[in-house]
Amino acid sequence: MNKQPSALPVIETENLADLPLQRMAQILSVGGDRALRRRLMELGLVPGTPVKVVNIAPLGDPLELSVRGCRLSIRRKQAKALLIRKSA
Amino acid sequence: MSSCHAPGSEPGPATSPDAQVPLIALAGNPNTGKTTIFNRLCGGIGRVGNYPGVTVELLTGRVELTHHKTGSPLECEVVDIPGTYSLVARSAEEQVSIDFLLGLRGQRQPDLVIVCVDATNLLRNLYLVLQMRELGINVVVALTMMDEAQDTLANPEALVDLLKCPVVPMVARSGEGFDELRAAIALGLAEPHHEERWRWEPSDELSREIQRVRTRLPEGWPDEDALALWALMSVGQGDNLDHIPDSLREAVAASRMSGEAVDDEAIRSRYQWLDRTAQPLLSGYAKRPWTKRVDGVLIHPVWGFISFLGIMFLVFQSLFAWADPAISLVETLFGVIGNFASSVLPASILTDLVVEGIIGGVGSVVVFLPQILLLFFLIGLMEDSGYLARVAFLMDRLMKLMGLHGRAFVPMLSGFACAVPAIMATRTMERRRDRILTMMVVPLMTCSARLPVYTLVIGALFPAKTIMGFFPVQGGLMISLYFFSIFISLAAAWVLSKTVIRGKTVPLLLELPPYRMPHISDVLRMMWGRAKYFLTEAGTVILACTIVMWALLAFPKQPELELAFQEQIAVSTSTEEIAGLERELAGQLLRESYAGKLGQVMEPAIAPLGFDWKVGIGLIGAFAAREVFVATMGVVYNVGGEVDEESITLREHIRAEKRDDGTPLYTPLMGLSLMVFFALACQCMSTLAVVKRETDGYRWPAFLFAYMTTLAWVSSFFVYQGGKLLGFE
After folding, report:
1. How confident is the model at residue B542 (pLDDT cuts 50, 70, 90)?
2. How many angstroms separate the CA of residue A31 from the nearest CA in chain B?
């Protein structure tokens, strides 16, 4: 229980669902079910693409993303399968 | 077997029998102004048809062009295929695009495809163009929304070199660029460019798989690398594709590359090419201060819900109240036509058929028009403005709990007015599974046709008193029935989504388009197209059912009985006496009609619910439309068919009706059982007719009827028998 603070360097990767609002990030990898993953990538969410979360639905789900100048809405569960790196 | 079409390859409504007329397809991402282009190009409304086998709409119209070489007029057929982001398909509905564009189902392949490309969303839209170019499709790009993109895309002409196909910058709404588009189509028809142009080099590994799968493509499919790649990306475990032969499935399954690896390589390569070549043409993304500001209110945690409730109230109110004068007008009008017809035609069975069967039947179809027109006008406004996507965004969390799509909210709300337009409104959802699930639960909502029945039963059997000094019994019952229907429909959605209509939960992936001013003429065209579709498709089924219902209630004729009454009437002196005799005759005829006999046959089945055979006749009559129950009971009890639910005489007759043992038939407990039955049973042939149309078969209407009737019977049984056990009356 009493974990020592890790000596490892802080890993910057996290999933999109945990990205704070309006914070820019870059897509590292897209995971999840094949059909969904393919659809996300076909909409332009390929690795390297900048993305940010611009809104959260009033009931907490889904999220509204801004990517390549367009707005997409995806559920939290799916956002968790998107790994990102926060931009500085 | 003289049929000229092989089964399964029946040409869609879109396919012209006239092979001389060039066929043009209109494709593109959703929200690109595709519909506006179609309407402007073809002028007037197109024909709505379904693609065979799936309920995907293909809109067909005609455009007059000038022949590129001869200068003579050139008529073309234009087919609007559903908006899509990609040609890769996972479901039979998505498969329609590739099937149609390549003519894979034995129908004609379009000579040219207009791809609408939203200039403010260039890369994502060009992705679809790349797929088509890889397949060697003869493409003309209609570059729409140029008014919004003029600051970000300064040099659209550069795209011509990039894509090696004509690119026409245009503003669909103002009509800018249409002459150029027509010219480009004419030129494209005269000098097609089919050459395949891959913008990326597949890896050796992927090339090997493509070559291997290509040899296994079914006969009749074009022998192309791009189609083999399509199969590698589309066919797989859990797909719902149609007409994929096992040989192709096996070939794809034998791939040494994982599906994900194929997807990765193809999609990333295309986007890398786009990022390298097309992205530099953009100086940024369209700023949309308006959309930001409006969304600040409409999806705000507090204001968002308040405005949502306001807008939904408006939709509900318009269906429930504003459509009413128009509905009354239709009813009066058909009443007048019917009276006129029966006054000029000689009294005969044929006249009865014309007046009650046909005129009444057409009336019972047209009566739905006011609500259908209103609902689709409002849906058109919401869809065109971009709000419908926000409805799904706001409601997704709640609807998801029941396995429903976020967009199911509007149809379910409309179900409180009438299930018929509500079921038609399920078309705003793309997936068949979502549509069917919504269709299966919408008829459980308390529609306005149930109200007269509730009003009659509550008014006749429950006291106008209050409980505990403030809670009115009658009003309370009415409200409880509403909540009951909401609860049951949500519960039914949950159960059905876990059992019968399982399907994978939809990965909600929804574009929130920028807010735009709705284009009223597009909205009106869509509204009228829906109404026309309803009249010609569902209307004919409803008409046929009305005639059958009429025959059930009106036959067999009994000339002797009528003669006997006529003699009595002839010697009567007071008009009151005559009216009484006429009501008695009508009652006796109905009780001895086929419907009356059916009521007697089904009495053992409904007796455990507390109903007798006369109520059974009412239930049969209610199948035409629930509110007909009131008039049918009026005739059954010799009160006449002119009664309404507020009728004092009918209420008194109901209270006075006795069972054989002398106890009253209608007790509050039986009334409750009757109302529960009405709340749950699928007593509405129009609903079944529309479900049959929308699902293109008898399976789902049969299921709907069976499950709702079973649910109704079991629930009424528990209410009535349980109530009796507990000592209620």
Report:
1. confident
2. 9
In a domain, A1, yes or no: no
Domain extent listing, chain B: 23-190, 541-725
Question: A31 near A81, Cβ under 8 Å?
Answer: yes
Which band of pLDDT confidence, cut at 50, 70 and 90, is reported for residue A7?
low
pLDDT of residue B430: 76
Query: Do residues B341 and B354 make contact, with C-beta atoms less than 8 angstroms apart?
Result: yes
Cα B480 to Cα B473: distance, rounded to the nearest angstrom: 10
Question: Cβ contacts (< 8 Å) between A37 and chain B: which residues?
Answer: 260, 263
The answer to whether residue A72 sits within a structural domain is yes
Which residues from A are below 8 Å from B515, CB to CB? Answer: none
Structural domain includes residue A53? yes
A38 vs B127, B267, B271: nearest CB: B267
Tokens of B318: 């318009």
Chain B residues within an 8 Å CB radius of A81: none
Compute the average pLDDT of residues B241-254: 92
Distance from CA of B511 to the nearest CA of A (A): 4
Q: Tell me which residue range forms the domain holding A68.
A: 13-86
Q: Please name every residue paired with B91 in a beta bridge, in sequence order, or none if there are none.
A: B240
Q: Give the tens place of pLDDT for each residue, B14-71.
A: 444 555 799 999 999 988 888 889 988 988 666 666 565 555 678 888 999 988 888 8
Cβ atoms within 10 Å of B341's Cβ, excluding its own: 15
Cis peptide before B518 (omega within 30 of 0): no
pLDDT of residue B13: 44
Which residues have C-beta within 8 Å of that of residue B641, sequence separation ≥ 6? B586, B631, B632, B634, B635
Looking up residue A57, the CATH number of its domain turns out to be 2.30.30.90
Q: How many Å apart are CA B78 and CA B454, to the nearest integer?
A: 50
Contact between B299 and A33 using a beta-carbon 8 Å cutoff: no
Does residue A67 sit within a domain? Answer: yes
* Residue of chain A minimizing CA distance to B389: A73
Q: Which chain B residues touch A64 with a CB distance below 8 Å?
A: 299, 393, 512
How many structural domains are present in chain A?
1
Q: What is the pLDDT of residues A49-84, one digit of tens each?
A: 999 999 999 888 899 999 998 899 999 988 999 999
Per CATH, the architecture of B23-190 is what?
3-Layer(aba) Sandwich (3.40)
